[in-house]
């Protein structure tokens, strides 16, 4: 599949979807609460240490960051939602950025929503997923940080989140589990992206 190595280029940071270049390539967005591990996952998927900027503190990614992979598809690192410690105005402008990007980006192929595998389903995540459904934006779920708890606890918590989601959804979307730290889960996500790319072609 040639997934071992991907050739990634940083295209740019944009304050709004309107400022983004048209690439004509299928694009995959990574979204989730601040600090859930979006930027770290993008680095792991692309085998790069820090092409996407990461931080211990939430609120690191503040713009729409566009990357191009193998001259064939795009990855987008978005700011996180649900970060309480920033000002209301900032939070509002990040949400506007995220919502506008998701609603208006014509070449958006899929949105990966990252959920922390250690936590119960958060209200803000549940509502965000419902919004995606309402807008008919295709999405999948990635459970992050699976290295922190024991395997059993992680699996039990993921199962619990899924049961919660089944209260809202008749069918669950595709789900993945990753640890960017221990480097597990990459192949399944890249293969999934490749399969969508083929369908679009
Ligand atoms: P914002 O840009 O602030 O919205 O956050 P983000 O979702 O991009 O998170 P980021 O990738 O910056 O990671 C946040 C913190 O989580 C960092 O301290 C990472 O090292 C840590 N982290 C990310 N992925 C993993 C993982 O798989 N396992 C563990 N243990 N920590 C992780
Ligand atoms: Mg980030």
General description of the model:
With 201 residues, the protein is α/β, with parallel strands linked by helices. It has a single domain, classed as P-loop containing nucleotide triphosphate hydrolases (Rossmann fold, 3-Layer(aba) Sandwich), CATH 3.40.50.300. Helices cover 33% and strands 21% of the residues. It contains five helices and seven strands, in the order ββαββαβαβαβα. A seven-stranded mixed β-sheet has the order 1-3-4-2-5-6-7, with helices on both faces. Helix 4 (151-165) links the parallel strand 6 and strand 7 (175-177). The longest helix is centred in the middle third of the chain and has 17 residues, at 88-104. The two termini are 17 Å apart. The mean pLDDT is 93.
Task: Give me the side-by-side strand order of the main sheet.
Answer: 1-3-4-2-5-6-7
Round the mean pLDDT to the nearest integer and report it: 93
Provide the CATH topology: Rossmann fold
Radius of gyration: 16 Å
Helix-strand category: alpha/beta
Small-molecule components bound:
guanosine-5'-triphosphate, magnesium ion
Distance between the termini: 17 Å
Taking pLDDT < 50 over at least 5 consecutive residues as the criterion, the unreliable ranges are none
Number of domain units = 1
Number of strands: 7
Query: Residue share in helices?
Result: 25-40%
CATH architecture descriptor: 3-Layer(aba) Sandwich
Largest sheet: 7 strands, mixed
Number of H/I helices: 5
Element-level helix/strand string:
EEHEEHEHEHEH
Shape: globular
What is the CATH superfamily? P-loop containing nucleotide triphosphate hydrolases
Q: β content, as a range?
A: 15-25%
Name of the level-1 CATH class: Alpha Beta
């Amino acid at each position: 599949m040639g997934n071992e190595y991907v050739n990634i280029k940083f295209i740019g940071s944009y304050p709004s979807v309107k400022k983004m270049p048209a690439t004509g390539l299928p694009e995959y967005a990574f979204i989730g609460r601040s600090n859930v591990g979006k930027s770290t996952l993008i680095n792991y998927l692309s085998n790069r240490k820090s092409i996407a900027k990461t931080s211990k503190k939430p609120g690191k990614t503040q713009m729409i960051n566009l990357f191009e992979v193998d001259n064939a598809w795009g990855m987008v690192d978005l700011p996180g939602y649900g970060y309480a410690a920033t000002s209301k105005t900032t939070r509002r402008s990040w949400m506007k950025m995220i919502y506008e990007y998701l609603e208006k980006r014509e070449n958006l192929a899929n949105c990966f929503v990252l959920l922390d595998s250690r936590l119960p389903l958060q209200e803000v995540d549940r509502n965000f997923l419902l919004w995606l459904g309402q807008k008919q934006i295709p999405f999948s779920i990635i459970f992050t940080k699976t290295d922190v708890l024991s395997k059993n606890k992680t699996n039990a918590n993921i199962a619990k989140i899924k049961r919660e989601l089944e209260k809202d959804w008749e069918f669950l979307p595709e789900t993945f589990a990753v640890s960017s730290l221990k480097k597990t889960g990459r192949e399944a996500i890249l293969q999934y992206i490749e399969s969508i790319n083929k369908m679009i072609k």
